[in-house]
Amino acid sequence: MKSVPGTLFFKPMKEEPRIIPFLGIGNLIDAGRAPYRPGEKCYVREGWCRGKIEQADGDDESYLGDFYVGPGNDVIFEQYCIEHNVGIDDVKWLSPMTLSAKYARRFVTILSCEPVRVSEVTEEDCLAVGLKKITKDNGRTWKYGMADRDGLPGTDNTGWAWEDWKVDCREAFKVWWHKRHPDKEWAWRVESEGRNHG
Fold this sequence. Notes:
The chain is of the alpha+beta class. The protein contains three helices and twelve strands; from the N terminus they run E-E-E-E-E-E-E-H-E-E-H-E-E-H-E. The strands form four sheets. The chain has a five-stranded mixed β-sheet with strand order 1-5-9-12-2, with no helix packed on it. A three-stranded antiparallel β-sheet has the order 7-6-8, with no helix packed on it. Strands 3-4 form a two-stranded antiparallel ribbon. Strand 3 and strand 4 form a beta hairpin. It is flat and about 70 Å long. The two termini are 17 Å apart.
């Protein structure tokens, strides 16, 4: 089973597609074989961890149990650690890329996988990848960019300085995209709908 990072994401194309003029009314895009097919079932990759879990019967022995939580589930994680006597600081977080389908809690069905030029994404696309839309002047000017973990502009950890935010969402997307894929102007836009495990 293939994995995905979320319900809407962009995957860089290995090669730029061929643009074929079609009957003088538009263009066909020959992008080759898509990495996902509509109707395909996938699991969602999330950050996870492995820790020592104390046995519930009070035995002094403990065993290695696999467990994980995804982004935004800090409260659930703290409850889990308390219930299983696991020290929060003792847990080593592992990359979402290493999460096995065996432990996945979210699954999706691919709805579409279409080629898109990076400069032609929508505002919805920008917000879906984690860019934020913020105003500092009561709505006269809105800007798009990457916020820090507190949800505000800044460079404390993950964000951009306010002067680097863009008025055009496509410009912000291009900055975000080219930091990850410097030479890629085309991407697969993959959309899916999902459910939680069970």
